[in-house]
Amino acid sequence: MTTYSLGSDDAELTRLEQQSARIAEPTRILFRAAGIGPGMRVLDLGTGIGDSAVILAELVGPSGEVVGLDNDPRMVETARARCDGLANVSFVEGDVTRAPGDGEYDAVVSRLLVLHLADPAAVLRHYLGSVRPGGLVVTLDYDTRAAGAEPAVPLVSEMFGLVAATLRSAGADPTIGSRLQAIHADVGLEDIGALAITQYLPPDSPVGPGLLAGVVRSLATRMVSLGLVTADQLDVDTLHDRLAAALREAGAFFVPPTLAASWGRRPGPVPHER
Ligand SMILES: C[S@@+](CC[C@H](N)C(=O)[O-])C[C@H]1O[C@@H](n2cnc3c(N)ncnc32)[C@H](O)[C@@H]1O
């Protein structure tokens, strides 16, 4: 059983927005590599506040359509408000472990969702019937294995360690990015491909400290209740500045989690053969 541990308070919605800005270009590259393009009808599972759906909408263009699905009403409400005016995007509330696919799609996509699922293959199998034969399943998620600082900075390592332990305690898998191809093979997809993108942020960039302090803030209550750390030790209000100072002093590059993608086709005729 997995519990989605990041919540949807104001700070978490801001964190999602900042995270999305950082990974927007890698996401575009990975979606394009997977074969997302003009005219496609796409279902975005675990769409959050709509950032992944907006990139998909840009790629499918006005002749395509994107439907975003999320089980958190606050996410859906925020996504609808943010995308008001975008004619080719809509949002639906529903749980990906049971909500129906509602029609046929050229692609079923998710970004930063499967990490949190107890059985990602079961969820993708559930939506396979909503993908047309020859259509795509595209999954983007993190592999935190290489995340940290170069050279190593103890505070950065400690915080990434706490984040990984807290996610694991909720049944999530922070290194799932490295297993996406295996999951797609298990689902029965064909023509499986994969690509991953890592970024290196310079010592004076505020982006890394913002990213790490933000995710620690969203998980802090759970970290403390698990007994991994005390609130005083975490001191979330000063964490961003302490991380930034430690990286600057060490002249260290911040290495965020790798954004990995895998894609594959539902067995059946490819479009030009139909
Ligand atoms: C980390 S956010 C990613 C949001 C967005 N895809 C992005 O890349 O910015 C994960 C989202 O998955 C949603 N989620 C988690 N478990 C879910 C489930 N069982 N059914 C539907 N949505 C779920 C959460 O509510 C959250 O909005």
Automatic annotation (TrEMBL):
InterPro entries associated with the record: Methyltranfer_dom, SAM-dependent_MTases_sf
Domain Methyltransferase: residue ranges: 38-145
SUPFAM superfamilies hit by this protein: S-adenosyl-L-methionine-dependent methyltransferases
Gene Ontology annotations of biological process type: methylation
Keywords associated with the record: Methyltransferase, Transferase
A GO MF label: methyltransferase activity
Domain of life: Bacteria
Protein name from the UniProt record: Methyltransferase domain-containing protein
UniProt organism field: Nocardioides caricicola
